[in-house]
Specification:
By secondary structure, this protein is an all-alpha fold. The chain contains 4 helices and no strands.
């Protein structure tokens, strides 16, 4: 409820929503809260990243901590791509 009340000051509009609509609003609020927490983590790490020369943009950081950067292709396809890259690198030498 607290997440919803941050955006909407009254809950009168909920009376007219379907259960699915209400669930979408809750999920969106949780996602926003989660993203804001990750942004705070990233901001806390930012000085360290800059001084050590390992800067990572917020998008890259967020994708990494949430697992959005995980490649969901079959392992065989990924291995074949790596093999092609190795062959191409050998040819260029």
């Amino acid at each position: 409820m607290d997440l919803i009340l941050r955006r909407y000051h009254t809950l009168d509009f909920i009376k007219e929503l379907t259960v699915e609509g209400f669930c979408k609003i809750i999920l969106k609020a949780i996602e926003g809260e989660d993203k804001e927490n990750h942004r705070r983590e990233w901001l806390a790490l930012l000085p360290t990243m800059i001084t050590h020369g390992k800067y990572v943009s917020f998008k890259e950081y967020y994708d990494k901590v949430t697992g959005k950067n995980i490649d969901m292709r079959p392992a065989e396809e990924i291995i074949a791509e790596i093999d092609r890259a190795h062959e191409k690198a050998k040819e260029n030498k």
